[in-house]
Structure formats: C-alpha cells, structure tokens
Amino acid sequence: MPIQNLTNVPKSFLKLGQIRKGDKLQGKRQDGSTYERPVDLDYFRVTFLKGVTVGSEKVNLSEIIEHRFREVYGNKPTAINVRFADHDVNSVWDANFECYKQGGLVAKAGSTAERGLYWIFYRHPETMETLISDERARTPEGFVLQEKPIDLTQPIYKNKKGEPFFLEPVGRLKVVIPEIAEIAVGYFEFRPESPRDIRNISAELGAFDAVAKQYGKTIAGVPFVLRRREEDVTKRIEGKLVADKSWVVHLDVSGEWGVRALNVIERLALPEIIEGETTEIPQIESGDMVEPEAHPELPVVESDKGKTQGSERDWTPEQVHVLIENRLAGNEFAARGMLGLSNLPADATEAEILRWGKAYREMRPDPKIKGTPTSEEAASYANLQMLIKA
Amino acid sequence: MDEPEGFTLNDAETVCNVYVCAQCEGELTYIENLISQDGSYIVLCPDCGNVEQVGRITRTTVAIRNEHSVFEFPRAIRTLPEFWGDLIPTQADRNKMLKELGF
C-alpha cells in the first residue's frame, strides 16, 4: 500500500521506535525513599522516537505513528505483525554482550565461532575514556585490552555499593510493522535481553530462512508475527532451579505461508518411502562357488540443465484440456505453458494433472495481483506438492 | 537492583550535552537530587524518566545511524515493494533529476 498524503517523504529508512518486553516499576521503601525495579510484562511495551519529522513544515510523524499503532494494537499488544526489510538474516538480527553504567554503554563484545569473544566497544568505567570502538583499539590501553581473552564471569565494573556488573546478552531485531509502513518508511527495534528469547528468535528466524530458501525466497516479504506466549520455564532463583511461568517471545509466521511452511517441514521430516524389490541371498556352503549375476546396464541420463522435463513432453489434447475445463488455464497456449514447467510424467493421469494444476493456481491465483509469485515459482511449489503427496 | 547513583554537576552537564534519551531520543535535562541531598544531580528525560533507568545514547551514535539510514532507504523500498513500491524512482524520475542538476 503506498504512502499517501506525504509531500516530502524523507529518503531514509528511519528508526521509528522500540519494542521492549519489560518495564521498570517504582517501589517505595519504608523510609520513604523510592527505587525502581525491573519487571517482565505480559505484553510488548512499544515506545516511539521523537523528532521523526517530514517536509519543511516539520510535521511530527511520531504522534501520528503512535496513534496509528495504538489504533491497531492497543496499549498492551501480545502479538505484532512484522516484516523484514532485508533478505539477509544478519542484517536484521544481531546479538552481542553489553554492559551499561548509569544508563550509558561501557562495553560491548561480539562472538563468532571463528574469533570467539572479541571487543566491539570499551569505555573505561571510571574515566569514561574510549579505549576500543568499532572493534579497533584507540589507545595503548585498548591494544593491551584486546590481547587479553574476555571472561564473561568477570565484572566490567562495580558500583558504589560494590555490586558487580557483567556483560549480558542483548539482541536487536529490526522489524517493519505493516500497519505503520503506510505512514513512514522505517523500522522498530525489538530488543530482547533474556537468553531464552534471544535463542528463540535466532532459532526460529534461522529455520524460516531455511524454509524460504527451499522455495527460492528469503525472509523479506514473509508475514511474521512477533508474539508473547505464557509458557512453563525453569528459572534459577537464589541458586535453586524452580519451575515458573514466563511470557516468552516467539517469532511465528502467519496465514497461508505459515501453514504451507509447516507442512513442508513436517513432510520433509518423515522417512522417505521408496519402492524396491526383495531378493533372496543364496546360502553358500563351504566349497561352493556362485557365479555373479549379470547386472542390467544402468541407463545413461543426459544432463537436462536449464530444461524442465515437462517442456520436452508432448502433451495430449486430453491432458491439456484438463486444465482448461477446470479453469486452471485460460486457453491451450497457457495450459501447455503451465505443463511445460511441470515435472509430471508423459503418462500423467487427468487426476494428477488436476492436482498439479490446483496446487499451481493456489500459489498464483491471479498474475495481475502485485507480488504474486512467478509462474516458475508456482510450478516449483506444485512440483514439490506432487512429490510430498506421492 | 540497580539504583541510580546520580551525577556530579559537571558530569550532568556533559551527559546532557553529549547524550539523548535512549527510548525516545529526546533532549535531556538535569535537576538537583533533593531526596538524597548529597549534592548529586539526576539526569532525566522529561517524557521517559531517569536516564540511569531508561538509558542514554550519544548524539553521535544517533547521527551515524541516521546517515546510514539514507543508504538503507533504496534497499528497503525495493525489498518491500508491497509497502513502498511507489517510492522506487522510475526512469522518468531519474531523467528529471538529471535535468534539474544540469546534465
């Protein structure tokens, strides 16, 4: 849906706000002094950046965006529709170890299988001098620090009370909310700080990326839902493991794509059933010799790279008419074109052609609709359906 | 729990100059900590609260991110054409821009 009523759209992919899981509630001590304690909510807490303006008149988009969001999701959303504006998972999802002091970042470390833990940013907790930034040492102290291995069990600093503060995992997920995309070109940042949520997002995003790649697609454009669900989890409280409930975050897919993706995953997880012949192995007594059986010559398979099997077959008029009569193709030319993309055998029955055609049309109901998969993509899907259901 | 420690006057001024609120990226201000009365100052965002709780982010970081967002724009509108396809410049738009630039 196009952005409307904006005369000057800022040519930037802006950050529009943040999505959080928790909040800080104020408490009061007996002596009257107040303190803030972190609490995990059962909904997403969404905040909106100020200063998102457009045009020379500086129309404040932030209020419009917030109003639209509340209109659609209310004040306590537990599920938010999201999309990703990049094909690569690494461009939309990142997780690092971070440490903050008085609200400001003092240390940030990344981790890869090849490099292990490495500093991305480090500021001296006392002097606030930047020793490392953008993974590069800026001072001699920074060089020395880079040589030492990072120990997550060691505190980065201690506060005035002597309480230690460590590097903690923090994830960042850049999502586009479709209902807001009508108003502004921008994204929201979901920031999980729980290792469980970070693991869930990483695993689920990776899994859906793998499924999308099977169709020759990517995560971009797939309709996801960022959801909170109450689940039984194990927590460590005062050194003991206890079972408790928690509102865990998951990344699901919605609608038709989700159902099909799950079907593909389920079918692919089943063992393959193949047709074979059983032969009896002759029992050999000591001293007997058995002549080896002559093996039939295996047929030489010509490479058909770049060609589909369907395009080399001569389809009978009856086969072609199956698609036309069932309104799966408009005319003979279209029907032959569709069959040319299929992997149906030359002697495919009418029932098989009908099933293939329906699967094709399911994916590509109307070529005129924007965003409809191409004929090749629809044919690939239908071919896969025939294999799964075979 | 992490309790706010407060800042010295000097640090509070520096924080307000260098940082913005991490939640809304609005301007920060500081007030004297009248509760602890230890001469410390609280830096806060008028909308979101004490920055030691809600977080602060440097203006430089915001500026760098906004600069990068300009380069991310063409990719984003092409990746999600169902939302922003109309913003993808056409050949006519490009020709018009070149003409306006004097080429």
What's the layout of helices and strands?
The complex is a heterodimer of chains A (390) and B (103).
Chain A: E1 14-28, E2 34-48, E3 53-54, E4 59-60, H1 61-73, E5 79-82, H2 89-92, E6 93-101, E7 104-112, E8 116-123, E9 130-133, E10 136-137, H3 140-147, E11 157-158, E12 164-165, E13 168-175, H4 178-181, E14 186-190, H5 195-214, E15 224-237, E16 240-253, H6 255-269, H7 317-325, H8 332-340, H9 350-363, H10 375-389
Parallel strand pairs in A: 1-14
Antiparallel strand pairs in A: 1-2, 3-4, 5-15, 6-7, 6-13, 7-8, 8-9, 9-10, 11-12, 13-14, 15-16
Helix pairs in contact in A: 7-8, 7-9, 9-10
Chain B: H1 9-18, E1 19-21, E2 29-32, E3 41-45, E4 49-50, H2 51-54, E5 56-58, H3 59-79, H4 81-84, H5 91-100
Antiparallel strand pairs in B: 1-5, 2-3, 3-4
Q: Unreliable segments of chain A (pLDDT under 50, ≥5 consecutive)?
A: 1-7, 295-309
| Shape designation of chain B | elongated
Let me know the number of strands of chain B.
Answer: 5
| Strand arrangement in the largest pleated sheet of chain A | 2-1-14-13-6-7-8-9-10
Computed Rg of chain B: 22 Å
Strand order within the widest sheet of chain B? Answer: 2-3-4
Which word captures the global form of chain A?
elongated
Secondary structural class of chain B: alpha+beta
The H-and-E topology of chain A, N to C, reads as: EEEEHEHEEEEEHEEEHEHEEHHHHH
Helix count from the secondary structure assignment of chain A: 10
Task: Provide the helix percentage of chain A.
Answer: 25-40%
Whole-angstrom Rg of chain A = 30 Å
- For this structure, the quaternary state is heterodimer
Largest sheet of chain B: 3 strands, antiparallel
> What level of helicity do the residues of chain B show?
40-55%
Q: Give average pLDDT of chain B, whole number.
A: 89
User: What's the rounded overall pLDDT mean of chain A?
Assistant: 81
Unreliable spans of chain B = none
| Number of E-type strands of chain A | 16
